[in-house]
């Protein structure tokens, strides 16, 4: 099962490598990982997507919690939540295909943020499935470069982490 | 006029902080990056420095010091090879949850990342084998970081902490103040167990027909031997200890059924297999203890008390988990049992003990008594008798370690000092040295083998320099005994590189280091030689016992087997 863990951790040098090192040392799997400081510059928020049985996820949560730099861990996929990922994608856009690309971007509610004679660069956000669907809808030969941020997530409702 | 406090250099702050932390001894080895600190050490008398001969020895000595006292062990080494030589020692402490604070020098801040002379990424290299580590980036953080390091190392589930200090920090100056206490928002170990869980546990314990108490090193680390003894004796239940937990409950007491696990007793392992309520306290269900998890305690409900939540349900699913300090939880549990209207089931317990006594009759630790050859078990039995079970005993790793654990009956905690988790050969001698430093009036014995002993042999010099007269019992079978045993059992006796050839003359070797060496070949000389060595209180004695070369450790559960699938010695295998 896929899980999204949200971590608050001390914004200190090496804190990220403690989390990443724990996953490799204990043979846990990381599908994606994003991290940036929060409104409090001494705290970073990290979103990590992993998968495993309930027992493994329980162990992962406990082991991550045990790290001295980790302030809080929540498995946000246990409750209603929103996840978003940012993708930047550079596509070949020439001749008749140029109009087709533009149409696809509109359908998927992306934005063209850079234009050359031969290419469009597109910004798109959504959950992973939507971004996958966009890529799937394109002719793979026109994809020049893909950059994905990995998932960020937040719970729905009044409660904050 | 404003009153400004005097500024101190980082190196001076370092020493003052150690003294204010109550550190009396540090084990170390100087080098370029810590020269400012060594200069300050020279000028003071608050902290005694023990100069080891190898940084691995420093860590093991500090570890033995910590295990035998309960106080954190402190190490000071230089950058680069100084800290990399510590890795085995740090990992050893980490696996057994021993509080160590290791200070490493680092190249000056402006050179970090430049591949400078004797530079190593100490924080990166030690990260997987420490509880936590710190890089000091400003002299104003130094005192507070030292305070935090000791707090993290000694609280919750203890463990080693590394503090990496660049050389320029030890030269910079600031005002000194040692904090009284530590507040860390990200680190708050749980002490009190959940009252509801404790109540549930108490009722489950009292409902047992075939109970078993299984305790580990956590009881010793948590200073809860007294509470464990009260708890066990008020219930009248059988108790087994892990290798790390020996001494937490008196081994000579009638309720003690011996060590469990791969080389545990028949009665302990059979008791585990057939129990209906298992009470696990400060133990972590290690694979050498559980054997095949599919076959582990098949009929049992399990209660698990541990300060580390990640130990609970890690290997074995638990019915009643209790997170908390073992001492505090045991006190609460004793109170809850006293308050309960239920009592232990006397009738069921009587039947259960009758069964356990049947298993005991097999006398699984019996071995062939002979005058023809020195049986290693016999040496340990005699050592136990002659020291009246009151010595501090360290060991290395292998057959001798198992025999020491099986035949030396520890009645008190912190007397048995061995590398259980990592299984580090070379641990025994420096660990004994550290224990002796902390207990100068006590008998300290290192039980070892000829393969392990030579791995940290250089510390014989440290023993001489600081007058640390330990007794070394070398069970010399000219083999890496445990490797040989596995090769005999599982590799058709192909003894690939497990023999010890070209061994030194251990008597001359001891003498070369300024100590006394003894060579014992005859079984009939074992007792008198031990008596003689133990009577020498002011010199290190290295006793080289030439033992039965092919003796094996029994009983044994092969890895991947269940507790009910034990092997006894071949001539007395069960039907």
Structure description:
Chain A is an alpha+beta fold and 161 residues long. In chain A, 29% of the residues lie in helices and 40% in strands. In chain A, the strands form 2 sheets. In chain A, strands 5, 6, 7, 8 and 9 form a 5-stranded antiparallel sheet that branches. The model of chain A has no long low-confidence stretch (mean pLDDT 95). Chain B is an alpha/beta fold. Chain B is built from 23 helices and 20 strands. In chain B, the strands form 4 sheets. Chain B has a 6-stranded parallel sheet, sandwiched between helices. The model of chain B has no long low-confidence stretch (mean pLDDT 96). Classes of the chains: A alpha+beta (161), B alpha/beta (575). The A-B interface holds A 9-10, 13-14, 17-18, 21, 25, 55, 58-59, 62-63, 65-66, 68-71 and B 123-124, 127-128, 131-132, 135, 152, 184-187, 308-310, 312-314, 317.
Largest interface, by Cβ-Cβ below 8 angstroms: which chains and how many residues each? A-B, 19 and 19 residues
In which range does the helix fraction of chain A lie?
A: 25-40%
Query: Main sheet of chain B, how many strands, which sense, barrel?
Result: 6 strands, parallel
Helix coverage percent of chain B: 25-40%
Roughly how many Å is the radius of gyration of chain B? 25 Å
Question: How are strands sequenced across the largest beta sheet of chain B?
Answer: 3-2-4-5-7-6
**Number of helical segments with 4 or more residues of chain B:** 23
| Strand residue content of chain B | 15-25%
| Number of alpha- plus pi-helical segments of chain A | 4
- Quaternary assembly: heterodimer
Report the sheet-strand fraction of chain A: 35-45%
Rg of chain A, Cα atoms, Å: 19 Å
- Residue stretches of chain A low in confidence (pLDDT < 50, at least 5 long) are none
On the 0 to 100 scale, the average pLDDT of chain B is: 96
- Regions with little confidence, pLDDT below 50 for 5+ residues of chain B: none
């Amino acid at each position: 099962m896929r899980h999204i863990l949200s971590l608050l951790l001390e914004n200190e040098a090496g804190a990220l490598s403690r989390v990443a090192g724990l996953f490799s040392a204990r043979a846990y799997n990381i599908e994606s990982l994003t991290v940036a400081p929060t409104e409090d510059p001494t705290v970073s928020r990290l979103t990590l997507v992993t998968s495993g049985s309930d027992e493994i996820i329980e162990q992962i949560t406990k082991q991550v919690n045990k790290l001295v730099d980790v302030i809080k861990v929540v498995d946000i996929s246990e409750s209603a939540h929103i996840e978003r990922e940012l993708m930047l994608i550079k596509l070949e856009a020439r001749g008749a295909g140029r109009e087709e690309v533009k149409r696809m971007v509109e359908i998927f509610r992306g934005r063209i943020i850079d234009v050359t004679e031969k290419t469009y660069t597109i910004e798109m956000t959504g959950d992973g499935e939507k971004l996958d669907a966009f890529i799937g809808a394109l002719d793979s030969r026109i994809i020049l470069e893909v950059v994905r941020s990995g998932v960020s997530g937040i719970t729905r409702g009044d409660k904050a982490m | 006029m404003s009153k400004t406090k005097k500024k101190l250099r980082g190196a001076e702050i370092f020493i003052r902080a150690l003294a204010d932390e109550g550190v009396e001894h540090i084990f170390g080895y100087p080098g370029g990056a810590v020269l400012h600190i060594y200069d300050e050490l020279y000028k003071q008398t608050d902290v005694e420095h023990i100069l080891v001969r190898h940084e691995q020895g420093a860590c093991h000595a500090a570890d033995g010091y910590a295990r035998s006292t309960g106080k954190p062990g402190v190490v000071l080494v230089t950058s680069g090879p100084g800290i990399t030589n510590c890795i085995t020692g740090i990992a050893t402490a980490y696996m057994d949850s021993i509080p160590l604070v290791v200070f490493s020098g680092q190249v000056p801040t402006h050179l970090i990342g430049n591949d400078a002379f004797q530079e190593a990424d100490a924080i990166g290299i030690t990260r997987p084998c420490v509880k936590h580590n710190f890089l000091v980036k400003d002299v104003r953080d130094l005192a507070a970081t030292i305070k935090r390091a000791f707090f993290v190392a000694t609280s919750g589930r203890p463990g080693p902490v590394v503090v990496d200090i660049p050389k320029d920090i030890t030269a910079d100056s600031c005002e000194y103040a040692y904090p009284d206490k530590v507040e860390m928002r990200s680190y708050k170990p749980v002490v009190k167990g959940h009252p509801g869980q404790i109540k549930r546990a108490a009722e489950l314990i009292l409902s047992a027909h075939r109970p078993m108490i299984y305790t580990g090193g956590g009881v010793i680390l948590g200073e809860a031997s007294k509470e464990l003894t009260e708890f066990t004796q008020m219930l009248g239940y059988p108790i087994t200890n892990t290798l790390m937990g020996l001494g937490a409950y008196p081994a000579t007491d009638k309720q003690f059924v011996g060590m469990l696990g791969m080389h545990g007793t028949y009665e302990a392992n059979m008791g585990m297999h057939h129990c209906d309520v298992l009470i696990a306290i400060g133990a972590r269900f290690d694979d050498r203890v559980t054997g095949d998890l599919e076959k582990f305690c098949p009929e049992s409900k399990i209660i698990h008390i541990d300060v580390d939540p990640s130990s609970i349900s890690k290997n074995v699913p638990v019915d009643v988990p209790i997170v908390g300090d073992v001492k505090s939880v045991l006190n609460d549990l004793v109170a809850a049992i006293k308050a309960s209207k239920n009592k232990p089931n006397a009738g069921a317990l009587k039947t259960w003990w009758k069964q356990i006594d049947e298993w005991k009759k097999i006398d699984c630790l019996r071995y062939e008594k002979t005058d023809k050859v020195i049986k290693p078990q016999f040496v340990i039995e005699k050592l136990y008798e002659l020291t009246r079970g009151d010595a501090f005993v360290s060991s290395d790793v292998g057959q001798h370690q198992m025999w020491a654990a099986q035949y030396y009956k520890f009645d008190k905690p912190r007397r048995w000092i061995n590398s259980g988790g990592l299984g580090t050969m070379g641990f025994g001698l420096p660990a004994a040295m550290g224990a002796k430093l902390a207990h100068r009036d006590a008998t300290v014995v290192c039980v070892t083998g000829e393969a392990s002993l030579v791995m940290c042999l250089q510390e014989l010099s440290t023993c001489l320099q600081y007058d640390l007269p330990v007794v070394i019992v070398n069970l010399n079978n000219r083999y890496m005994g445990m490797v040989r045993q596995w090769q005999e059992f599982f590799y058709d006796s192909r003894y690939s590189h497990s023999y010890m050839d070209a061994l030194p003359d251990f008597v001359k070797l001891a003498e070369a280091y300024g100590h006394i060496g003894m060579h014992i070949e005859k079984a009939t000389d074992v007792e008198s030689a031990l008596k003689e060595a133990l009577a020498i209180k002011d010199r290190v004695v290295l006793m080289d016992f030439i033992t039965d070369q092919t003796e094996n450790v029994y009983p044994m559960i092969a890895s991947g087997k269940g507790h009910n699938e034990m092997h006894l010695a071949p001539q007395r295998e069960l039907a």
